[in-house]
Amino acid sequence: MESRWRSLSTAIAGGALIAGLACYPGEISTVQELDLSLAIRNPNVPESEFQNILTYAMPDTVIQIYPDTADANPPQLSRVYDDYILGQVESHLEARGYQRVAADPGNPPDVLVLVTATARTFTGAVWYPGYWYGWYWPPYGCYYCGYPAGGYWDVYQWDQGTVQIAMTDPAAPTDSTIQLLWMGAVTGVLSGVSSTTQARLEVGINRVFDLSPYLRRN
Amino acid sequence: MRTLIGMALALLAAGPLASQSIMRLTYSTAAPVGPTQDYISEFSWLGIMFEPGKFVRDNLSASLSFGWTVLDEQTDDPVQIGDAAGAQGTQFRYLNVFPVMAGLQLHRGNPRGGSLYLGLNAGTYFIERRTDFSVVSAIEDNWHFGVAPQLGVIFPLGYGRGHGNIDVRYHHAFEAGGHEYDWVSFSIGVAYGPRY
Fold first, then answer.
1. What's the pLDDT tens digit per position in B93-110?
2. Residue A185 neighbours by CB under 8 Å, 6+ apart
3. CA of A27: which chain B residue's CA is closest?
4. What is the pLDDT of residue B10?
5. Is the CB of residue A210 less than 8 Å away from at least one CB of chain B?
6. Of A214, B7, B62, B142, which one's alpha carbon is 20 to 30 angstroms from that of A104?
7. What is the DSSP-derived secondary structure letter of residue B41?
């Protein structure tokens, strides 16, 4: 009788331990579970300031950036989703009451919106000294200018394939940095193109704007 | 009053169970309550408790408690970071709880074997609070003082010294590292030792 009891106890204890170790929860099972959306407002810019914005200009391409200016063969991401990303951003900004206008140095918009994608993992920069005159205003062509890391916010390591949406003041900077008003990011989503990429982009960009309720025309 | 004192003395009187050892091994589930729910609200199905003890009186046992309980939750809730930033993605939240406690249990025997008991445990909880967010993990380890009142029943299974055990316990881990936790555990298992 006692030996049967000991066998039963041992079986319960062993079973519980094995079940515990086997069922330890929460392992990442899909790449979507690694996606992260971020939204950052420049702390020096009050939320109310975004209510005064009416017009914005946005390039019709996703700028690809990487940290190494000496790279003879700069990495490239797929451009399959450029139009989709830009359409999503435009749709959200329109829903917030902002109007897209053509870039015109003679009649600048209230803000510029720049959509970029990280072609190679690097740390630090959320904006890119030097491209301002070379890219946005004519001649519109320098997609791989090799913007070095560094800048006003040293907040994050940007993984390859991270999409960033930056809102900046259109006034030309007085030094080598451009101060962002706001930025959003969806990390790593373009690192590999698959059947889920578009759905991940949609969720990620939606979250960026959900995290920024202050982005709204008064 | 005289009746209450009489009952207390009767409960504490030495008898045939005094000095017998008791060892309980239980599978534990847990329901987070109070401030714990702000972090994890899901019911836990993962836990184990081991409690060696001894009857110091016929109706009074003393015990030590060792265990492991895992509370976890997967959530997509947004997180505010300071005044100016926010983040949203899949988070895996965990509380790994390891209690090390001492307790006293007051038993009321059943004529057909077994007992109903009421107890109070006090000691420490080592709690690992871990949040996995994308490829980033935030881990906080803290020792908490804690108390855990309990209610349980030991019932015969027909194995001589071996019995069944059901135990319900309210756990309170006092604040440490900026966090305090409450949860209720429901345990079922075996108790070995007393010959009723």
1. 999 999 999 999 999 987
2. A37, A38, A39, A156, A158, A162, A163, A164, A165, A208
3. B92
4. 43
5. yes
6. A214
7. -
Examine the predicted complex and report whether its ipTM is higher than 0.95. no
Q: What is the per-residue pLDDT across B16-73, written as a single tens digit (0 to 9) for each?
A: 566 789 999 999 999 999 999 999 999 999 999 999 999 998 889 999 999 999 999 9
A200 contact B CB<8A: no
pLDDT at A142: 35
The B residues from 144 to 163 touching A (CB cutoff 8 Å) are 159-162
Question: How close is the nearest chain B Cα to the Cα of A138, in Å?
Answer: 33
Task: Please say whether the beta carbons of A66 and A118 come within 8 A.
Answer: yes
Q: pLDDT tens for residues A27-51? A: 667 777 788 899 999 988 999 999 9
Residue A194: other Cβ atoms inside 10 A = 9
- Is A26 in Cβ contact with B87 (below 8 Å)? no
DSSP collapsed to 3 states, chain A? CHHHHHHHHHHHHHHHHHHHHHCCCCCCCCHHHHCEEEEEECCCCCHHHHHHCCEEECCCCCEEECCCCCCCCCCCCCCCCHHHHHHHHHHHHHHCCCEECCCCCCCCCCEEEEEEEECCCEECCCCCCCHHHHHHCCCCCCCCCCCCCCCCCCCCEECCCCEEEEEECCCCCCCCCCCEEEEEEECCCCCCCCCCHHHHHHHHHHHHHHCCCCCCCC
Q: How confident is the model at residue B184 (pLDDT cuts 50, 70, 90)?
A: very high
For A212, the closest chain B residue by CA position comes to B86
Rounded Cα gap, residues B185 and B104, in angstroms:
17
- A41 at B interface, C-beta within 8 A: yes
Residue A20 contacts B, CB cutoff 8 Å: yes
Burial bucket for residue A95 (CB in 10 Å: 0-12, 13-18, 19+): exposed
**Alpha helix locations (H) across chain B?**
2-12, 36-39
The pLDDT tens digits of the residues spanning A96-152 come to: 999 999 988 788 899 999 999 887 665 544 443 333 333 333 223 333 333 333 333
**What residues of chain B lie within 8 A of the CB of A19, using their CB?**
46
